[in-house]
Predict the structure.
Amino acid sequence: MRIAVGYFFIIGFITLFSFFLLGALQEGEDIKSVEAVLETETEMDTVTMPKNSYIYDKNGRVISEVTSQQNRRYIEYKDIPQLVKDAFLSTEDQHFFEHKGVDISAVGRALIVNAKANSIEEGASTLTQQVVRNLYLSHEQSYNRKLSEVLYSYQLEQDYSKREILEFYVNTIYFNNGIYGFETASQSYFNKPSKELSIAEVAFLAAIPANPEHYDPLTKKENTKLRQEWVLTKMQETGAISEEMKADAMKEPIHITFSKKTDLYPSYTFYIEHELKQLIAAEEGYKKQLENAGDDEKEEIEQKLNDRVDELWKSGIHIETSLHPEIQENVTSAVNQELDGSNVQGAAVVIDHATNRIVAMNGGKQYQKYDFQRAFQAYRQPGSAIKPLLVYGPYFEETGASTSDMVSSDPFCRNDYCPSNAGGGFYGNVTMETAFAQSYNTSALRLFDHTGIKTSFSYLDKFRFSKLQSENYHYAAALGGFSHGVSPLELTDSYTVFSNRGEYTPSRGIKSVTNEEGNVLYEWEDSSQQLWKKETNQKLRQLMRSVLTEGTAGFADIKGEEWRGKTGTTNEYHDLWFIGYDDRYTAGVWVGEDNPASLEPISSRLPHLSLWKQITSHIPEP
């Protein structure tokens, strides 16, 4: 009696549903075409779905997959293995190439099967309906949603070919654990592309979308295996595979090799994400808008920029970078090893100044993606490391002085600012080279005063020091006393001028940004500026060589090599710096605590020089 009543309601429901749908469509035809009615009633934009974007190293290897809300490796129809198509057509929609979006016979058949079993044993949604749910609608169980699904499915079939709809389906289905699309599932669960899967593995993965949580291959593999056998049976029944192939597949053991999204060098790739935003802002006018906007307008412009960046990430872009894997791995290892066992943190940057490319970057020991990235987010006082840029460079350029000219290292004050030299000593008249190599503060202040604050800063303003403001125009700046400081990336980048004959070109990590078709979307178009004459630059190079041969960075000198550079130590040893360069690379390190505290107890170990030497001693030949 119970089953008979069930059949009565089933037949009644099918009749009423069909009558309502056909009646609605017929009524629309009296006024305009069915397609026109559905186009009005169904809000369907061009099909878009978030795709993974990829970041590559200098050798073209993927070093990071960037996802938005959905982890998806998109695969085009021509690349979908036939076995994958057969698995879903056999189990989800055997009449896919025959119906127009809705399979009425399948609806009736499913209702009868489910009524007999007094449970849901068989579904009735076509692949088209499932695509509609994944792209446009929710998975709410209601008659209103079901009717919308039917209307959308019909319209989708008018707008797209069967091949396109099947492609959408394969890329939108969910495989649990944040995984969308069959290709992503193949790479995530078996660590290989779908074209390399066996029949057993294809069927195993095809089992998951029916109920992703229940058939989770990581936690409920037994359930997935049972469903896999059902999938194989359906594939055999439809002729997709033979009885023998089915039997072999059922015996084949399934070995899960779960792999998360690729993200090999988080310090570097996080910076690349930041640099992409800068590139878009520069190319699409947001940077100028922000520079000219009032405080009340900046938030709105910033939100538009963020939305634009997010849109690009979702579109599946490919970013080619300059990352050098061997150098990056050494930098990361050096930071973790040299700064281990204390609260001391650090950052390091390596730039190929021959090409103005950032080849390696570390944002702190044991760095995790999206943590505070000290290489470009930490702004600290540069100490004496600013002297060649703000004091000696401008002084030589303005006066034509020689490195052998004399300068006093005795006490000197300006506007009640009276610095002392490290150790408190005063040494009378010394050569420029000695004053620089020993980093005498009194000598530097004298030269800065002679050149003039505004003139000196006119040179510094040409670099990319983002926190420099007019409030920094004071005498303490000669020794690195800035209001907001500089980042390790900014300071290392500025030192590339010494290896380029006094010319400065901003250093970048991104080479190009392309779309899926390989068309270039963005590239940096930087121009160089001549900061000072070649003669001035050569004098500075001479001074910075003496820092390693007879000055404050003697510990960092590498036998048989000619590195040049400058140390920097701030008041109370809060910050320790060394930026140095050879004929090809410029490398900079900063060491300190996130909440500034004295490093005097460990300063005698010269952690900044030890870290820098560890990095530069293992840089391979270009």
